[in-house]
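Example (one chain per record):
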Amino acid sequence: MSSESQTFTEKYDLLGCIQCGRCTGGCPVTVRADLNVRQFVNNAYDEDKLEELSRLAEIWDCTACHTCAVRCPKGLKPLEVLIGLRTIIVESGKVEPTVRDALQSVLLEGNPWEKSRAMRTDWMEGLDVKIAEPGEPVENLFFVCCTIAYDPRVQAVARNIVRLLNKAGVDFAFLPEEESCCGSEVFTIGEEGLFEMLVEDNTEYLNEFKAERIVTLSPHCFTTYKTHYPDLKNPVIHYTQLLDELLEEGKLVWKGELQKKIVFHDPCYLGKQGGIYDEPRRLLKNIPGVELLEFDRSRERSLCCEGGGGKMWVESTSTKERLADVRIRDAKELDADIVAAACPFCVLTLEDAMKNLGYEEEMRVAEIMELLGEFVEA
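Predicted structure:
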């Protein structure tokens, strides 16, 4: 049955829901917002209520972290009901200007940050970077997240991995400036038409390259390609998986040591959605001198930072403490020196929380690749 002919109930398998409430019980956002996922699923049975439900501000509080999907005993994805409701409001054109501008930027420039496509590879300046060409064989074809490509705060992720891979003698290449957004946030915002266009165009583009695999720098790109791009010819992995392989092969050599206590924050898109938990921890443990700590809420129970699900462009109406602030307080209680993540959105939200709490002099937030880059043997 085509999606066009499906009812809302059929499309999101609402009849499969047994109303157990585990989705709402596990949802991290419920502690600070009026979001009741189970109630939305229940109310969405009534097709006549859909437009009314789509106008409720709570649908924008969902971060698409997938905790509800992980906890659902029926294997459903309750969050997609909220995304479906967002689609209704997006199609009506009644979205916040920040959302509208982000979507328009993706359409015109291939990124949601209102930056020129011609600037997408500016981060490569001064580096020895091989640019991929269609049909030219390469083992590892890198896809750079829009945020990493354009935000100076996290460009070190891409720059450091180039330095590390060159040192390790790895065969790799990066896509040229024609690279476009994977559509992760477009999907969760609810712009179905634009997302379908991105899937079609990106699939055609990426399949032109003769690569053994595609390596993503962001968990958002990683899970989007693995979940929503069924026609990609090449397998997709996250960079922590590649570096874990190099670690096992003895190709990563560090200079110096880091006598710090590090706690790893599991990004929702890498852990709950991608199933990657051990690789980042092995990389951090391998840095000489590091003492690796664990949050009480880690792995499948990791606390969302609220950076995903389009939240970069939609402010919550709640005045209660942000989850990123809670996360940083938890790290402070552990006496951690560094909060490490493997996601650009997590780094930005957690660092903002650290500054908001006034912990800049006591703690650091860092992407794993930032840390590893500091110890690449010269």
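Caption: The chain has a mean pLDDT of 93.
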